[in-house]
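Running low. Got one?
___
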Amino acid sequence: EQVANQCYQTAIGGADMMKDDEMTSDVSNCNYLDRLKAVNKALDKAEKETGKRPIYLLSITHEPEKMKERAYKAIDAGANGLLVTYSAGLGALRELTEDPKINVPVMLHASHMIASMKSVSWPVGAKLCRLCGADLMLTPTMWSSIPMVSLEEGIRASHMQLAPLGHIKPTFAMPCAGVYPGLAPILIGEYGTDIVIPAGGGMLGHPDGYTAGAKSWQQAIAG
């Protein structure tokens, strides 16, 4: 119910997408299908008010052999987006994205890639995730609250996801981590418009509430 309320409040403020936290998949007090049912009910209400249906990226991260079954069940229950963490493995991601029955966007949550930063550059990791079919993927940015990479490496990672690569489809870059509405012109100026900005705390932490937080981002982007 708490997740559904956040989704509703941000949806009526203009949010285009919303995602589960990467640490949440199927926990004792928040089963993933129950969560999906509650969120869809909230988004039905928001859609009647706004005329827009946001994408809800439901986390199905689990043991690799169980993720397909979870994806099928989620889609049958009305999921219009899925989330998988990098720790599940690139092979597991590819199994999902190559399956024609899994016909919704799959976001790759890259936070667990941080552990490999000393040996693998972020652009290389981004290319591997793109080759394995990620539709969206978190991207580090120098302007975040945890600036893990240089300005150049962050932009290179984004370009690796968007640049022409034969028949391979692009992956939406998501410059993230502690970003706030004032950064909108900087992020769009550096990364272009083919990005998704995961606002997170920069939206939900607005002093006037979740809806105001979503509106502030839309205003910043429009400006």
Notes: Residues 32-50 form the longest helix (19 residues). The mean pLDDT is 91.
